[in-house]
Specification:
about 45% helix
Length: about 150
């Protein structure tokens, strides 16, 4: 009985991530970042596979929702925070068109050991349609100097 929720969680993750497989998009990138962050948090809290899967599922959903709601203005603001934001200092903005609100707190930059790209982690708090959500992301700078969610 203890493992009865594992299959639905895996199926939900598969459906969400496969819907994003038609090329890079903001929702897909958000889902991937959310899944990774959620899995790490779930493992840290529960120290078992079930907690990791639940964390990944929740992170995927939150990351997908946040990524799907970010438009060009928001992505430019987020890129600016990753590029110039002071580590540990929150940066906030309100999208003038959608009304969505964001508070992003970047962490110190580090070099990805596999790709040798500069990367940063960040906490993103949002208020979208009156609902508060928090996601944890990692972005790395690509060859064109843009920060891409991992």
């Amino acid at each position: 009985m203890k493992h009865s929720f594992v299959i639905p969680v895996i199926l939900s993750l598969s459906l969400l991530l496969s819907s994003c497989a038609n090329g890079p998009n903001k929702a897909g990138m958000g889902a991937a970042g959310g899944a990774a962050g959620g899995a790490l948090i779930g493992q840290a809290i529960g120290h078992n596979t079930e907690a990791t899967l639940i964390g990944a599922a929740v992170g995927t959903m939150l990351g997908y929702m946040i990524g799907n709601e970010m438009d060009k203005y928001d992505r430019e603001q987020l890129n600016h925070v990753y590029e110039r934001g002071v580590s540990g200092q929150s940066n906030a903005w309100r999208n003038p068109d959608s009304g969505n609100q964001y508070v992003v707190t970047p962490q110190p930059a580090f070099t990805n050991p596999q790709t040798h790209q500069p990367c940063r982690k960040a906490e993103i708090q949002t208020i979208i349609d009156g609902k508060k959500e928090t996601a944890y992301t990692t972005a790395c700078r690509d060859n064109n100097g843009h920060w891409q969610l991992q």
